[in-house]
Amino acid sequence: MIIMKRKYLYILSSLLVLASCRKVDEYQDSVDIQNLKASYTISDTIKINVAPSSNIKGLQWKLNDELIGTNDTLNVQLGAYGKYTLSVSGTMDNKEFNKSIPLEIKPYIAAGANVSDLYATKLYEFTPAPGQFINELSTLKSATSILGNEKGLLSLGAWGGYMVLGFNKRVNNVSGKADLEVKGNPLPTWAEPGVIWVMKDENNNGLPDDTWYEIAGSESGKDGEIKNYEVTYYRPSQIKSAEDIRWIDNKGNSGVVKANTFHRQSYFPSWIRGNQYTIKGTLLPNSNLNKTNPQMITNMSFEYGYADNKTDANGGDLIDIEDAINAQGNKVSISGIDFIKIQTGMMADAGWLGEASTEISFVKNLNPNTP
Ligand SMILES: [Ca+2]
Ligand SMILES: [Ca+2]
Ligand SMILES: [Ca+2]
Ligand SMILES: [Ca+2]
């Protein structure tokens, strides 16, 4: 009898739990989320809204665990490929609901008659540092303009700003010669060198989730070069118009990316969330920067191994995969690469020229006919 009673109580309590779950589920299901697509590409503006209802209060949109909105409509750009969990919570008729939605952001892949496999054709991430061209020349949309042809141009902003690109066809490392051409917009007296990293798709999943190897350029190991450098940029009080952007580094230094009179839009990338963001990479020396004459500030190019650096006959910087090094600084032997990351290498304020910021026009495979 006692056993029977326990069993009965157990069944009863299970039913109560089920009943209360169903109650919550009903509220979750009645929260109507509109305009959600199965997947997006990184250049998309994602617009999702909750069907407006006066019964819904305290709306919170979260991306993974980060609060990203409190209105009926969410407008967000993510800037990096990946799988995210978007959740929306609040109360409906004073009952709490919390609905989670998977959100897949795919890389942008250039296609069409004007696109050639000779060039990088895929964009996986665009995380520029603040700079005078950000939100103007440089947007998530315009970042796709440098894919598949020689027509685009993009600025990566101040130190550390980067983009991750991919190729349709692996770029082979041919012994004794350069394998990649990276085109920026250097002038004879104004280089803005960017550090180049390469990756092979070792797990063959089409994603840059393998190991980055830095291309050791001519300044590698020299005074003023700092590996494992980090800078945190702070969101300004508003992002409608230009104002100085504060930064601190991991060496105890601080400064600002200065607003100038030529570019009046905000220099803080509009798609970066949160009050600050930290970028990691290699800092290049300011040894060639000459600010003696403020009217004629110069920064001569380094010898080799960087983006937006040399004005050679064909215009682009020539990169040899044989110069790849690992995190310990040792040379590595890579047969070919599928992904490239380009990152502004200097942290310098060049007066009226604005911040030193690497530009990219295209990235080209120099060995397209090798097997
Ligand atoms: Ca080579
Ligand atoms: Ca430049
Ligand atoms: Ca991979
Ligand atoms: Ca620049």
Nutshell version of this structure?
The chain has 371 residues and is mainly beta. The chain has helices at residues 2-30, 140-143; strands at 33-34, 39-41, 46-50, 56-63, 66-69, 73-76, 82-92, 95-106, 108-109, 122-127, 154-155, 162-172, 180-183, 194-199, 213-215, 226-234, 245-249, 254-257, 276-283, 289-290, 298-299, 317-319, 324-325, 336-344, 359-360, 362-365.
Written overview of the protein:
- 9% of the residues lie in helices and 36% in strands.
- With 371 residues, it is mainly β.
- Strand 4 (56-63) and strand 5 (66-69) form a beta hairpin.
- The longest helix has 29 residues, at 2-30.
- The model is unreliable at 9-20 (pLDDT under 50).
- It binds calcium ion (CA) (4 copies).
- One calcium ion binds at residues 201, 203, 205, 207, 209-210.
List the helices and strands and how they pair.
Blueprint: H1 2-30, E1 33-34, E2 39-41, E3 46-50, E4 56-63, E5 66-69, E6 73-76, E7 82-92, E8 95-106, E9 108-109, E10 122-127, H2 140-143, E11 154-155, E12 162-172, E13 180-183, E14 194-199, E15 213-215, E16 226-234, E17 245-249, E18 254-257, E19 276-283, E20 289-290, E21 298-299, E22 317-319, E23 324-325, E24 336-344, E25 359-360, E26 362-365
The chain binds calcium ion (CA) (4 copies).
The number of E-state strands comes to 26
| Low-confidence runs of at least 5 consecutive residues | 9-20
Beta-strand content bin? 35-45%
- H/E element order: HEEEEEEEEEEHEEEEEEEEEEEEEEEE
Helix content: under 10%
Helical segment count: 2
Radius of gyration: 25 Å
Largest sheet: 7 strands, antiparallel
Distinct ligand kinds? calcium ion
The helix/strand class is mainly beta
**Count of discrete structural domains:** 2
N-to-C terminal Cα separation, in Å? Answer: 80 Å
Spatial strand order of the main sheet: 9-10-12-24-14-15-23
Mean pLDDT: 92
Overall, the morphology is globular
